[in-house]
């Protein structure tokens, strides 16, 4: 039907067509310069956060499985996970026609992403085997704080006084978990095995957190010009080659003692792929700030799983350290969320 409306020109009335298809509207738009507004359908609210929660649960279960398997080195577990990840990603690369090498000017960053990212995974698995599950998870979870500092150094991103405060809080939390004898005395409670293994796990988790932060900086440097599956491909291939060489040199290649452990190794690989997929989907439809806050559930789950499956209650020092780290990473997430909201 037709409805009259004024264009603001004195003594002149135009007619506007209502209730027609998109092509007709485009023709009218070209004739009368009408604004063309097409609303996108709204997605399911909270779906991105739900994906982030699922990825957190999967990663927490992986840590429990790594802790459960006996007699298999962390590097061998990493090699098996990388192998299955390669099998999963290869057909996806072929389907999306991205190639296996990527853009020529981005290959150095892809190699760095694969090498540093796979080392972060190996260090996390080793830390989980050497120290309480929750303590290793908390220290590894501190990587967002170091990401901000490394982005300031290498990418020239803005660094505020809050980033320095969050860093101090994070290091304080790590110290409370590590509890060096020269500060806390020689008699320590709540550690697994001897203190040597505890400090090895602490160093591995801390190094893994920094390696993960470096990985995020490299991914930021590449931006969106490289397909996500290509990044995962480099991560799996380089990690697999590195793990095979390292395990062979160390002579640690062993077949799991029982059939159950072999199934658990395969489950670790499958959950790793699912966790990364859900995390990627979450970041595609939700802002990074809320996703990072949802990842703090990982720390809570680590303490719950540690008590349920390993019958180990956390110490007050571990809880205090976890609180410092969670507050720091949450502060980083909230600050970036607020900054991006203001810009938008």
From TrEMBL:
<dbReference type="GO" id="GO:0005789">
    <property type="term" value="C:endoplasmic reticulum membrane"/>
</dbReference>
<dbReference type="Pfam" id="PF00892">
    <property type="entry name" value="EamA"/>
</dbReference>
<keyword id="KW-1133">Transmembrane helix</keyword>
<keyword id="KW-1003">Cell membrane</keyword>
<keyword id="KW-0812">Transmembrane</keyword>
<feature type="transmembrane region" description="Helical">
    <location>
        <begin position="161"/>
        <end position="178"/>
    </location>
</feature>
<feature type="transmembrane region" description="Helical">
    <location>
        <begin position="263"/>
        <end position="280"/>
    </location>
</feature>
<comment type="subunit">
    <text>Interacts with STIM1; stimulated by depletion of intracellular calcium. Interacts with ORAI1. Interacts with the plasma membrane calcium-transporting ATPases ATP2B1 and ATP2B4. Interacts with ATP1A1, ATP2A2, KPNB1 and XPO1.</text>
</comment>
<feature type="transmembrane region" description="Helical">
    <location>
        <begin position="198"/>
        <end position="219"/>
    </location>
</feature>
<feature type="domain" description="EamA">
    <location>
        <begin position="200"/>
        <end position="331"/>
    </location>
</feature>
<protein>
    <recommendedName>
        <fullName>Solute carrier family 35 member G1</fullName>
    </recommendedName>
</protein>
<feature type="transmembrane region" description="Helical">
    <location>
        <begin position="78"/>
        <end position="96"/>
    </location>
</feature>
<dbReference type="InterPro" id="IPR000620">
    <property type="entry name" value="EamA_dom"/>
</dbReference>
<keyword id="KW-0677">Repeat</keyword>
<feature type="transmembrane region" description="Helical">
    <location>
        <begin position="231"/>
        <end position="251"/>
    </location>
</feature>
<keyword id="KW-0256">Endoplasmic reticulum</keyword>
<feature type="transmembrane region" description="Helical">
    <location>
        <begin position="47"/>
        <end position="66"/>
    </location>
</feature>
<dbReference type="InterPro" id="IPR037185">
    <property type="entry name" value="EmrE-like"/>
</dbReference>
<comment type="similarity">
    <text>Belongs to the TMEM20 family.</text>
</comment>
<feature type="transmembrane region" description="Helical">
    <location>
        <begin position="292"/>
        <end position="310"/>
    </location>
</feature>
<dbReference type="GO" id="GO:1990034">
    <property type="term" value="P:calcium ion export across plasma membrane"/>
</dbReference>
<keyword id="KW-0472">Membrane</keyword>
<feature type="transmembrane region" description="Helical">
    <location>
        <begin position="133"/>
        <end position="154"/>
    </location>
</feature>
<dbReference type="GO" id="GO:0005886">
    <property type="term" value="C:plasma membrane"/>
</dbReference>
<comment type="function">
    <text>May play a role in intracellular calcium sensing and homeostasis. May act as a negative regulator of plasma membrane calcium-transporting ATPases preventing calcium efflux from the cell.</text>
</comment>
<feature type="transmembrane region" description="Helical">
    <location>
        <begin position="316"/>
        <end position="334"/>
    </location>
</feature>
<dbReference type="GO" id="GO:0051480">
    <property type="term" value="P:regulation of cytosolic calcium ion concentration"/>
</dbReference>
<feature type="domain" description="EamA">
    <location>
        <begin position="47"/>
        <end position="178"/>
    </location>
</feature>
<feature type="transmembrane region" description="Helical">
    <location>
        <begin position="108"/>
        <end position="127"/>
    </location>
</feature>
């Amino acid at each position: 039907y037709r409805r009259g409306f004024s264009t603001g020109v004195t003594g002149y009335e135009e007619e506007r067509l209502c209730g027609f298809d998109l092509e007709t509207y485009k023709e009218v738009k070209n004739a009368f310069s009408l604004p063309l507004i097409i609303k996108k359908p709204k997605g399911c609210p909270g779906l991105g956060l739900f994906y982030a929660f699922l990825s957190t649960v999967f990663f927490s279960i992986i840590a429990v499985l790594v802790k459960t398997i006996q007699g298999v080195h962390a590097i061998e577990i990493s090699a098996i996970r990388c192998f299955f990840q390669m099998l999963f990603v290869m057909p996806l690369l072929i389907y999306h026609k991205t190639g296996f090498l990527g853009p020529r000017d981005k290959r150095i960053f892809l190699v760095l992403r694969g090498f540093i990212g796979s080392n972060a995974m190996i260090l996390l698995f080793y830390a989980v085997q050497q120290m309480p599950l929750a303590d290793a998870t908390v220290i590894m979870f501190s990587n967002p704080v170091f990401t901000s500092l490394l982005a300031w150094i290498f990418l020239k991103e803005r660094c505020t006084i809050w980033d320095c405060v969050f860093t101090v809080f994070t290091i304080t939390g790590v110290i409370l978990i590590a509890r060096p004898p020269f500060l806390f005395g020689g008699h320590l409670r709540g550690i697994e095995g001897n203190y040597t293994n505890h400090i090895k796990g602490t160093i591995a988790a801390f190094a893994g957190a920094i390696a993960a932060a470096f990985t995020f900086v490299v991914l930021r440097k590449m931006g969106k010009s490289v397909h996500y599956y290509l990044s995962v491909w480099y991560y799996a291939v380089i990690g697999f080659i590195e793990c095979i060489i390292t395990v062979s040199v160390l002579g640690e290649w062993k077949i799991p003692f029982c059939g159950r452990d072999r199934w658990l190794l395969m489950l670790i690989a499958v959950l790793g792929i699912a966790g990364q997929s859900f995390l990627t989907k979450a970041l595609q439809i939700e802002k990074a700030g809320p996703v990072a806050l949802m990842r703090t559930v990982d720390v809570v789950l680590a303490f719950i799983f540690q008590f349920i499956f390993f019958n180990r209650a956390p110490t007050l020092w571990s809880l205090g350290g976890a609180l410092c780290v969670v507050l720091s990473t949450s502060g980083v997430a909230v600050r970036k969320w607020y900054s991006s909201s203001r810009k938008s």
